[in-house]
Amino acid sequence: MIKAFRRGFLPSQVPYRNLNGNDNSGVIVYFKFRSFISIGVEERMESCIELKSVKQFHAHILVSGLHKNTQLATKLVIMYTKLRGLADARLIFDQMYDPPLFLWNILIKENSSKEALALYNRMRQAGVQPDHFTFPLVLKACGKLSDLQTGKAIHYHIVRSGLESHVFVGNALIDMYAKCGCVDDARQVFDKMSDRYRDVVSWTAMISGYARTEHAEEALILFHQMQLQNVMPDSVTMACVISACGNLGDLEQGKLIHSQINMNQLDSDIVITTALVDMYAKCGDVDIANQLFEKMSRKDVVTWNAMLAGYAKNGQANEAIMLFNRMQLSNAMPNLISTVNLLSACAHLGAVEQGMGVHTCIIKRGFESSLVVGTALIDMYAKCRSIDIARLLFEKMSGRNVVSWSAMIAGYVQNGLASDALVLFEQMQLEHMKPNSVTMVSVLSACAHLAALEEGKRIHHYIVRNGLELDTSVKNCLVDMYAKCGSIDIARNLFDKMSKRDVISWNAMIAGYGMHGHGEDALALFNQMLEARIKPNHITFVSVLSACSHAGLVDLGRKYFSSMSREYHISPSMKHYVCMVDLFGRAGNLEEAGNVIKSMPLEPDIGVWGAMLGACRIHSNIQLGEYAAKKLFNLEPEDAGYYVLISNIYAAAGKWDDVAKVRELMKFKMLKKTPGCSWIEANNKIHTFLSGDKSHPQSEKIYAMLVTLIEKIEKAGYVPDTNFVLHDVEEKVKKRMLYSHSEKLAIAFGLININSVMPIRITKNLRVCGDCHNASKFISKIVQREIIVRDANRFHHFKNGFCSCGDFW
Question: Pick from 69, 99, 129: which residue ends a domain?
Fold first, then answer.
């Protein structure tokens, strides 16, 4: 009979006769036959190597009625699982009366994370006690899903089962909490583990948890402790530590770890080398990253993506595009991440045409439906100043998530459309999409751009209510927002309350003091930063030098500029040279400003020549102004602002023929002057005014208030300075034009509509003119109100007839 079965006969086709020749006693022989058959099936199952073969034997077993045999059913589940026939394995498993524990564990391991947790719940309901193999599997599923609530419930089950001290379970708990972003809970589990039970996996799980978060410095501290405990790190540990160095931007520490890797001969490991490429790129040393990349004999798609991301993040977009072309010719086929990195490179380059080419490839490959790719496309088009295309893609997206909303809001802010960003944020809330810290950073930036203090306060309350104020980046933006909205005291109060400050926190506060003309406070804070052992970066020095410029601290500015390279090994960038030209130029040291330009190792850009032209405007230096203007016309021939500046220099000197020539040139080039514009926030709305504006619903009241104000301040000693009317017209007309400047209209509106105990806060798109500056001082004294004006350069706090800038701006 067994031979017959092996020849392919079904049991029903095999004739058999009982031993006594009596048909009624054949049941014993039948059961003996079934035992023989089951042995034969097991032997044949062991030789199955294809899913099709297992299904054929499964059919034989069903026909023969052997499917109720627990041993055979278990073997079938195992075979199906090995060959990825999970649906069939699950079907057999679900029909089993009392599956053994190891079979539960196999299915939990092989199924999706959601299905694994469902199986775990069913297992507990069936009264099956999980073991030290079960718990790590379901904790891993929680980590993948970032399901902290279920993870904590499983932790409770572990404690009750007495398996918390088991090393496998402990390691899985650490990993789960770390992947759910709860590194403090992970650390508690880690600290409870006995030293003798902690293995390299325990240490690596904890280091990895820290490396992925803003606590990356803790990863390096823990790595040092691991070495003191004589626990030998493996390649995964080293990759995590390198990742921590990259996230911290700590190149020095990264190089030390690299040397350890070389000493331990781990440099041939593709995971470690890829991590090194990523670390060097994140730390800004793209050359070394590229050297390591080129030396690698084997590269996978992750390696290529690391190098692509490095080029993109460091602004080397052309190199990224060339590398992507090489990648397409290699064995590593570009994936979604590769595409996202390439779009990021196009965004950095502002290369909308290349970006459109990538977009075409995305459509051909069918990647367009991916949320990640769609969000990257929105970001690319927004950064390439194609905000309308970005919005069109955003509207077409199905299943938009918080990342896509955040990208669109950030795009509006980047394109100077702060009001649209706030409108979109309101729409996001109406659609019940919960924002995250990234969203709030952009929303706060929009408030800062508009100097919308009341809106900023409302957003601040929202952040607190939703527990988003714990994020350091959000706290930094709150400091920046309040500083840019004129509330420097609130900004400082928030800064002082921060439990953890990074270099961005210090930079935001120093820059805030600089904008408000508090140069000495900015420099005092810089010294506190050094005492706190926070290493300044290039942005810190931009803020420090800018503060010196606004406060007229020439000698200190010169000192800090020279200390950059000498003490902190920071090579001056273009922005630093702009600050120095501005510093000397504002102070009237035009010759020294010119010497800075001559000594620059870089070719001066529009920022440098713009600062020089602005200084010539302040100090009426026509000859040097003309030279700077010519440079600017060559570099940026379509920017009307520079033509206006040189025209103003001519007008101030009464050279009306030259003014006419500049205006004719602008007309020929079809360039239009940016009109002076001031805006003020009142009753949760932004009100905008242009010079001579009569479009506001309250225009009659505003102009009536202006007449009253002018009469009062003239009695107090104000004399209109018609030199700031840059038109060749009669004196009466010049005065009339001065009276209706946009900031004066905004002040009058504020006096009508804003509570008398509140300061009047105004923002202007251009530099405040000398006459409006003088008039604002008189108005502040007459009406006994503080008037805060943020112009294109800095803040002016007018109070009791004085300005915080000391008439130096």
Answer: 99
